[in-house]
Amino acid sequence: MRNRIPVYDIQNFSAYKNDGILVSRFGFYAKQHQHLHSAHRHSFYHFVFFTQGTGKQQIDFRTFDVKPNLIYFMVPGQVHSWDFQSEPDGYLINFSATYFSSLLLKQDYLDKFSFFSGKPEEQVLVLDRDACKKLISIFEEMLGEGSTDKPINDDLVRVQLLRLLIEVARVSSSSNMQDNNPYNHTILRNFQQLVEQNYTNFRLPKQYAALLYITPNHLNALCNDFLGVSAGKLIRDRVILEAKRLLINLDLRVAEIAEKLNFEDQSYFVKFFKKYEGVTPDKFRKHYITTPYGTE
């Protein structure tokens, strides 16, 4: 039975010559870190490109197939697990949230990539043959840089990593680093960041619209046009996600979770959760701990 979900920091893993990044062949990594196959969280950015293997993986309670030519991305704080049916291999990169701070003046640069949005449906991509060849070449260059006896050139590795991310963004139909209307794109990004920072306190679109100096109708229109959901649903989904993350920690009572999420009382939290998930918090918790993947 899972008592709590572990959180791993970049320092928990062998460094790639220097702190802040780990580049590895995935087959070796998966064998060395069997504990990571169970549900866990990272405090760093993480992505894997599979060249072989089959099975399932779960990102924030959404289940995806594992297969060759698939790449997935994760941001700090997300819940993740693997369940392989055949031996996997490929490439893995972990890097800290501050890894690019000495190179990029624009600290929110990574936010431009849709696969770092924190939304599982945007984080799992299947690449075509040409894109796979390009990525394998870059991964091998990075591994080669790490294995040489010469001192590692940190900025060269950072540039290689940025090149890899840009190549994925180019070939991904869901990745678009430049919107036709930069103003709307900026408002939407700012809204998503505000939700991440304030979802326990602000539950109404009009509260966020006021912070953004726009009308609630404008905010809803942007969310519907670009994300296909209302602003209210985006806020609720973030609250529900955090509730799920807390519920799989069996050390917390439902009443404590309700308090952490700033609900008036346990009863209101239970009604809220059941309304949007179709089950009570207790039933969700029991289902998760008695099945390999809990919920999809």
UniProtKB/TrEMBL annotation:
Report if keyword Transcription regulation is assigned.
yes
Q: Keyword set for this entry?
A: DNA-binding, Transcription, Transcription regulation
Query: InterPro entries annotated for this entry?
Result: AraC-bd (IPR003313), Homeodomain-like_sf (IPR009057), HTH-like (IPR037923), HTH_AraC (IPR018060), RmlC-like_jellyroll (IPR014710), Tscrpt_reg_AraC-type_HTH (IPR020449)
Residues covered by the HTH araC/xylS-type domain: 189-287
- Pfam name, any one: AraC_binding
On whether DNA-binding is a keyword of this UniProt record, the answer is yes
Tell me what this protein is called: AraC family transcriptional regulator
Traced from the root, the source organism's taxonomic lineage reads: Bacteria, Pseudomonadati, Bacteroidota, Sphingobacteriia, Sphingobacteriales
